[in-house]
Automatic annotation (TrEMBL):
The protein's name in its UniProt record: Putative NADH dehydrogenase/NAD(P)H nitroreductase HBA54_28545
Source organism of this protein record: Pelagibius litoralis
Keyword Amino-acid biosynthesis assigned: no
Keyword Cell membrane: no
Keywords: Flavoprotein, FMN, NAD, NADP, Oxidoreductase
Pfam family, one: Nitroreductase
Domain Nitroreductase span(s) in chain numbering: 23-174
Annotated family: Belongs to the nitroreductase family. HadB/RutE subfamily.
Required cofactor names: FMN
EC number(s) recorded for this UniProt protein: 1.-.-.-
HAMAP family: Oxidoreductase_RutE_HadB
UniProt GO molecular function: oxidoreductase activity
């Protein structure tokens, strides 16, 4: 674990990676989607709670079910993307803790405690969503993450009668680099960080 990634690897994951809205007509295989999850699941979460759940939409029919929940500016890009992942979190994640964190009674930390459940599921599900984006980029895909959608509608359509709750969406595929806007600025270290 002591080696620094090559500049090419860092470029692919961070420096050259961009949020894409226009997609090439290239599919995304089930094998690749599974590989993304298998990498993303390895990132740390508190007490290994692993609340992220993912629903991959690839068919036209599945995308059409999502369409009414999308903000207007996200419709065309999502319909054109080879795959759209609904990144969700499981509000009953703690039921898996006896297997995921067997050396303590971690389930009891959450069962019957809705505030702890919500905070832990959302925080760690979002953290895992970031790992998901990095994993997709590491495996050669471009991403278009977005929060411009109606969560209530998505949950009603896709997660009714389940403990899953939508967090954000992420389009996946091979983006068209010719259609990218100039990169927006980022804060410098001195603007965003403090050393004590």
């Amino acid at each position: 674990m002591s080696e620094i990634l090559s500049d090419a690897g860092l470029d692919q994951i961070f420096r050259d990676a961009r949020t894409h809205s226009v997609w090439q007509d290239t599919g995304v295989s089930d094998v690749l989607l599974e590989a993304i999850y298998d990498l993303a699941k390895m990132g740390p979460t508190s007490a290994n709670c692993s609340p992220m759940r993912v629903l991959f939409l690839r068919s036209k029919e599945a995308k059409e079910r999502l369409r009414p929940a999308l903000d207007a500016g996200n419709v065309d890009k999502t319909m054109a993307a080879p795959a759209t992942a609904i990144l969700a979190y499981d509000m009953e994640f703690y039921e898996k803790l006896p297997a995921l964190f067997p050396h303590a009674d971690a389930r009891s930390w959450f069962a019957g405690k809705p505030k702890a459940i919500e905070q832990t599921a959302q925080r760690n599900g979002s953290l895992q969503g970031a790992y998901f984006i990095i994993a997709a980029r590491a495996l050669g895909l471009d991403c278009g993450p977005m929060s411009g959608f109606n969560r209530t509608k998505v949950d009603e359509v896709f997660f009714a009668d389940t403990p899953w709750r939508s967090n954000f969406l992420c389009n996946l595929g091979h983006g068209d680099p010719e259609k990218l806007h100039p990169r927006s600025p980022r804060l410098d270290f001195d603007e965003a960080c403090r050393l004590l």
